[in-house]
Write a structure and sequence with these properties.
Elements (H helix, E strand, L loop, with lengths): L8 H35 L13 H20 L7 H7 L7 H13 L7 H18 L4 H20 L2 H4 L1 H5 L6 H24 L20 H32 L6 H18 L8 H9 L1 H4 L1 H20 L7 H18 L5 H16 L3 H12 L7 H16 L5 H16 L1
Helix pairs in contact: 1-4, 1-5, 1-6, 1-9, 2-4, 2-11, 3-6, 4-5, 5-6, 6-9, 10-14, 10-16, 10-18, 11-14, 12-15, 14-15, 15-16, 16-17, 16-18, 17-18
Length: about 425
């Protein structure tokens, strides 16, 4: 493809397929979100209180039943946690398990488990792009473009921040070629389509997660940048603890890998007990994050610190026992709660500063898209651009600490580079 890719007919063919995949992905994501919200409102007509040990037996019953259903799905169908970032690097997704994976994710989210909707909706878009491309025999290049379009359309609609999600492909392993940027142009258009569908159906409103926090503005000081470096290191430490917990629970649950029904039921039962004791560990964490940041003083420092680690346990245990969803929203809660705890210890440190920095740093230390996460956190917290520099310092320090030192995802980085090299050769 020439540098002036817009003059090339193949670009417009690519754009046409990207727009179609983007529209279908947006509609599919909209249906998934509708079913998720409808199911949650049906099963949880009243959300549990934030007070510890205030949960009823109803929590235990719901989560145990959801665990049984998830176990049955795993027993009869092939459902698995797949990597949507890896799909973007490789240019395709094995779409066979996607329907059953989406079903498990839907039950997990409705059941109140500590997972987010970003992974299943991304897999929906990627699977749709690969399936349509292979059915129509469109070729490797168009399939990769359609996978990008499907994922970014889904997330452009889910977050209603289309151009924040377009930053993600630039952070993944890729070759600096005009063809790649042509594909990004197509994916950006698909992301806008996803945004438009959600924005129109939602009554011209943005996603509820945007500006969910009402944090007091602060004036940027030079020492905030130094503090952001320390917060980035702390975010990396919390991410490492998350990774160790995930490894521990996976090894524990591996004893029941051949018994998915028992594994899911036990997982649901134990996480139900945790939910009864600490209701803030339930669900993806957006409403809980608002509660912790607004009522941190009333909850108390000890409980806020406990919630940081309890949320990590709730998420890693759910992943290990067969429940499927995304880690971003729970990790945003972990970062926000950790920032609230720091503010309780050092009231002179602006709450918005420590909360936003750690909300970006914790997931940014684990995932390969730190800059995109920083942008999303700014939308969630409402931090203005003039005060955003510490947030990006923190997330880049966290990412550099874990990935740069090889503490997390060493193998996946090599694999992504290998996929990128293969894609450039093709």
């Amino acid at each position: 493809m020439q540098n002036a890719f817009a003059k090339n007919r193949s670009f417009w063919v690519q754009l046409g397929w990207g727009a179609l995949v983007g529209l279908l992905s947006a509609l599919g994501t909209l249906l998934f979100v509708f079913l998720m919200n409808w199911g949650i409102s049906l099963v949880w007509p009243q959300k549990p209180d934030a007070e510890p040990f205030s949960g009823s037996v109803r929590i235990l019953v719901i989560m145990t039943a959801a665990g049984l259903v998830v176990g049955l799905i795993h027993h009869f169908f092939k459902a698995e946690m797949m990597d949507e970032f890896g799909a973007m690097v490789e240019g395709r997704l094995n779409y066979g398990p996607v329907p059953s994976t989406l079903l498990v994710a839907l039950v997990s989210l409705i059941g109140g488990f500590s997972v987010g909707p970003e992974v299943p909706t991304g897999l929906l878009g990627a699977g749709l792009g690969s399936w349509l491309s292979e059915r129509r025999k469109l070729g490797v290049d168009l399939e990769r473009s359609n996978v990008f379009s499907g994922i970014l359309s889904a997330w452009g609609g889910l977050f209603t921040t289309p151009f924040a999600t377009v930053v993600m492909p630039l952070e993944l392993a890729h070759q600096q070629t005009p063809a790649y940027y042509a594909m990004l142009t197509v994916a950006a258009a698909a992301s806008v389509i996803g945004f438009s569908v959600f924005y129109a159906v939602g009554g011209n409103t943005f996603a509820g997660v945007l500006r969910i926090l009402d944090l007091q503005d602060y004036s940027l000081k030079l020492w905030h940048l130094v503090l952001a470096i320390a917060l980035g290191v702390l975010g990396a430490v919390l991410a490492l603890i998350f990774g160790l917990l995930l490894r521990f629970f996976k090894r524990l649950a591996a004893l029941l890998d051949n018994q998915p029904i028992i594994r899911g039921t036990i997982g649901g039962f134990l996480l139900g007990l945790l939910g009864m004791a600490l209701p803030l560990t339930l669900f993806l964490g957006t409403s809980g994050l608002k509660t912790v940041t607004e009522q941190g003083a009333q909850l108390g420092l000890a409980l806020v610190i406990v919630m940081v680690f309890a949320k990590m346990v709730a998420t890693t245990a759910a992943f290990s026992t067969g429940f499927i969803g995304g880690p971003i929203f729970p990790l945003l809660f972990v970062g926000g709660a950790a920032g609230t705890a720091i503010n309780l210890v050092f009231p002179s440190v602006p709450l918005a500063l420590v909360v936003a920095c750690l909300m970006a740093a914790v997931p940014g230390a684990m995932l390969p898209v730190p800059l995109a996460l920083g942008v999303i956190v700014l939308f969630i917290t409402g931090i203005p651009a003039t005060e955003a520099i510490p947030v990006f310092v923190a997330v880049l320090v966290a990412y550099g600490t874990t990935h740069g030192l090889g503490l997390l995802a060493r193998g996946s980085r090599k694999e992504q580079a290998h996929h990128a090299e293969k894609s450039s050769e093709s």
